[in-house]
Predict the structure of Methyltransferase domain-containing protein.
Amino acid sequence: MTQNNLAASHFQNAGEDYAKYRPTYPPELVEFLAAQCKHHNLAVDVGCGTGQFSALIARHFQQVLATDVSASQIENAAPVPSVRFAVEPAEQCSAKEDSVDLIVAAQAAHWFDLPSFYQEARRIAAPGCVLALVSYGVLSIDDSHCNDRFRQFYYDEIGPYWPPERQHVDNGYASFDFPFEELSYPAMSIERDWSLEQFLGYVRTWSSVKAAAKEGKASLTDSFAEELAGLWGDPQERRKISWPIAMRLGRI
């Protein structure tokens, strides 16, 4: 099975839950990326999912092409006037040669055939184009008891069911070959104040949770949810959830 088919199989029916539960990136991330670009005519959001990040990018660029290999993700994307959504693999983009000022892959590059993707990025890049492979790492909960229980679930219980590609997310894509002039970036994070239902809804979008359920291990997630509820207290109480942002950022 190709990388594109693997990605599609993981996310083919996940679009609705992704749109509802997945955290969105902070506006300052897009502001920073836009500030690195010489021009702001066209940006491409590769592996865009349901388009939350694409909508943020559209505030800074005249046009955005948002692509994903999963039709379900694209179908659940909210329309944005200056964003064109398309079902396309990362390695075959419909953008014209020398036309793109920013190429972003947010929490998606670990599914790509990187050499082919880099070749395509070079083809569509305008002079000075910026390429950002963005990821967010393992979250933290502001309550130590909840956080400790979450870490046990993430690493020890559901950990074996993550696809091998997940290791690249956990290390911030540090092991990726990145043959471009690399740029530095400031420390940033995603911050959310979530109820218990929102947090567990997010956890249930994970490919590892779905894989465990397929192998008859749904009880892992159910037991975790029950124990976390006991530690959380009032399920409507909102707790701060934080994800550190990591990037491989460069100029093509």
About this structure: Confidence is low (pLDDT under 50) at residues 1-13. Residues 34 and 60 are 7 Å apart (CA to CA). The beta strands are 42-46, 63-68, 83-87, 100-106, 125-136, 140-141, 181-182, 189-194, 239-251.
